[in-house]
Structure formats: structure tokens, C-alpha cells
Amino acid sequence: MTERDDDRADALFHALSDRTRRDILRRVLDGEHSVSALAEKYDMSFAAVQKHVAVLERSGLVVKRRDGRQQMASGDVNAVRSVSALLAGIEQMWRGRITRVDDLLASDSPSRPVDSP
């Protein structure tokens, strides 16, 4: 993994570490929403929702475009897939390590019971 990949992974996981941002992402993956419409659902200021959308946009999970005076946000399915692929790679690495530990433990097991005194 390159440093650029690590930076991207940091941005993705930072964006997904917040409950509100995960909820916004789910909504915009279902379809494009104006940031104003997104803000109506939350008990926080419009500016706070804008900041959450900006974090998602910087991570690449959300794409924004202008439609007149409105900012429209939509989810980037490919970015979500890249998160899934990253997690699958980490899972595979750990499964390999666990398998090696299991193999090591199995090879160190006594083949016959230890005599008790």
C-alpha cells in the first residue's frame, strides 16, 4: 500500500467514523439530495450538515454539484466499493495470520497426554 493509498484510507475511515455522516451517505447512495433537504432531517444547523457533507466529499464518498442556488449531493458507489475492498483485504490478511497461528498451535500440541505425577 502506498502512502497515497494510506492517506485515502484515512480519509475514508475518518468520514465513516461519524454516525451522521454514515446516515447522510446512506441517503445519498439511494439518490441525489440537496444539502438543504439533507439538513432538514437532522437536529443540527445547516452549516453543521454542510460540514459533514464536505468531509464525505473530501473522502470521495460523496460528489456535489450545483443546481442553481442548491448544492446537490450524491453518493459515489465506486468509493464505497473501494472501502469494501480495503476491508476485505484486511480481513484476508488477518485470516491468514490466524490460520498460521492455528497451524503452529496444532503442531506444538503434545501427541500423547502428559503423565501426571
What does this structure look like?
The structure is a single chain. The chain is mostly helical. 67% of the residues lie in helices and 12% in strands. The chain has a three-stranded antiparallel β-sheet. A hairpin with a 2-residue loop joins strand 2 (62-67) and strand 3. Helix 1 (3-16) packs antiparallel against helix 4 (46-59) and helix 2 (19-30) packs across helix 4. The longest helix is centred in the C-terminal third of the chain and has 32 residues, at 77-108. It is elongated, with a radius of gyration of 22 Å. The N and C termini lie far apart (54 Å).
Task: Characterize this entry briefly.
The chain is mainly alpha-helical. 67% of the residues lie in helices and 12% in strands.
Tell me the distance between the termini: 54 Å
- Poorly predicted parts: none
Helix content: 55-70%
| Integer average pLDDT | 91
H/E element order: HHEHHEEH
What structural class do helix, strand and pairing data support? mainly alpha
**Tally the helices: what do you get?**
5
Strand order of the largest sheet: 1-3-2
Q: What's the overall geometry?
A: elongated
Largest sheet: 3 strands, antiparallel
How much of the sequence lies in strands comes to: 5-15%
- How many E strands? 3
Gyration radius, rounded: 22 Å
